[in-house]
Write a structure and sequence with these properties.
With 273 residues, this protein is mainly alpha-helical. It is built from nine helices and three strands. Strand 2 and strand 3 (128-131) form a beta hairpin. Helix 1 runs antiparallel to helix 2 (38-70). The longest helix is centred in the middle third of the chain and has 39 residues, at 135-173.
């Protein structure tokens, strides 16, 4: 299924977020600070910001695709389904290219962690610093990324709202079916829709909190405490950590594969003993 292809790319994007933010932060905290040179920080921040962009774009694409998939089979929706099925690979490539181009400016302002007296227009990540030359550049870059993310959040929220409406209508249609039939297993599309809606709800909630902190950092004319940045990046890690949990909870195929892997592992341990 195309939805599973998008999910795999979304999982990869969130893995990159963990590797380029969570792992460096832990290494820096345990004292391996010599690893984070200017070049290393530029690479890490570029990959992290690109991965964050991939995550929001793939979540948006997934919600739109699922919305079109379960929509009524009218001529307009059928054309859109056919388009997305046919050009899914091209859409994914376009997302990768556009996001990487959009993130090329950040490495110019990124340096390794060091002792500085003036951190007025600086975002302190602990292991790396993002230093902007003036307030105009800080707010321009910040509001530019905020506007991009907000556009896709609104789109995925609208798509998820339509999915919920379709699921509600479907539930009303089957309300007259016998109780024994109502208890049958949900079809794959319903499960996929619930996965998408849950991911969007989690992302939108964390995005709202992240944006409040982000706007606070942008409008402050004095140095912002590093703890504020830590909270923002913790929220980013929360979504990356929540994605696999949501997929495992709602995707029966993944649960079955994990169960089979656990059974195989137990049998292997018994053979060794």
């Amino acid at each position: 299924m195309k939805a599973e292809v998008i999910l795999s790319h979304l999982a990869g994007a969130n893995l990159l977020i963990c590797l380029t933010q969570g792992v460096p932060y832990c290494l820096y905290a345990v004292g391996l600070r010599g690893l984070f040179t200017d070049v290393m920080c530029k690479i890490l921040i570029f990959i992290f910001r690109a991965a964050r962009g991939f995550a929001i774009m793939f979540t948006c694409l997934l919600s739109c695709f699922q919305c079109i998939t379960i929509a009524q089979n009218t001529e307009r929706w059928l054309r859109m389904k056919s388009f997305m099925q046919k050009y899914m690979t091209l859409l994914l490539v376009a997302i990768y290219v556009l996001i990487m181009i959009n993130c090329t400016n950040l490495p110019m302002f990124t340096v390794g962690a060091r002792n500085l007296t003036n951190l007025k227009y600086t975002f302190n990540l602990g292991y790396c610093l993002i230093i902007y030359p003036d307030q105009l550049t800080t707010q321009g870059v910040g509001f530019g990324m905020f506007s991009r993310d907000l556009l896709f959040v609104i789109t995925m929220t609208a798509a998820s709202g339509y999915i919920l409406l379709l699921l509600h209508r479907h539930r009303k249609q089957v309300s007259t079916i016998r109780a024994s039939q109502q208890n049958t297993e949900r079809n794959a599309e319903t499960q996929a829709s619930q996965t998408v809606v849950t991911l969007v709800i989690v992302y939108t909630t964390l995005f709202g909190l992240d944006c409040l902190i982000w706007c606070y950092q942008l409008v402050m004319t004095t140095e912002v405490h590093p703890l504020v940045s830590n909270v923002r990046y913790y929220l980013n890690m929360c979504y990356s950590s929540a994605v696999p949990i949501v997929i495992v909870v709602f995707n029966r195929k993944v649960r079955n594969r994990l169960r089979c892997a656990a059974i195989t592992h137990d049998k292997y341990l018994k053979q060794l003993s």
